[in-house]
Amino acid sequence: MFLAVAIAALYYSPCMRYLYTLLLIVLCSFTTAKATNTPDDDATAKANRICGKWESTEKNLRVEVYAYKNTFKARMIWFSGGVTKAKPMETITDVKNPDPALRNRKVLGLDVVENLTYSPKSDSWEGGKIYEVQSGKYWSAAAYLDKNGQLKVKGYWKVKLLGKTMAFKRI
Questions:
Q1: pLDDT at 2
Q2: DSSP secondary structure of 9-53
Q3: For the whole model, what pTM was predicted?
Q4: Considering its fold, how many domains does the chain have in total?
């Protein structure tokens, strides 16, 4: 009983009431403070704009772009080239791969773009490589989003001028 009276006396004293009120204000300000975006959050959001599912404008290929260890990759999720009733997409393998050990791997689900890194200065993804299933060759790769939101992926050899650009629409 003595403890309860002592606590009540402390709470009702003007000094303690002031301290409790101050503590309550401080705690409430922490819970209602709006989180602000850091520059790193903004850069990550800009870099991740490339992520998602994309279909080529020729409608013969679909890829899924995803983040992987500070880089970006794209895996093949659908394609129409070489597909017949007798040879469905799920059975097609990487027969042109220069490594005989990889020739039996399925093309569906294969990472065809790797190591793209976002460059805020150019607002593009650079320094990657793209695998051409038809030839079994790797090419240098870069990508950007145009003003219409299309993903443009360029495969090239040494110089970007010497290459081919594929356009994709988000699906």
A1: 40
A2: HHHHSHHHHHHHHHHHHHHHHHHHPPP---HHHHHHHHHGGG-EE
A3: 0.75
A4: 2
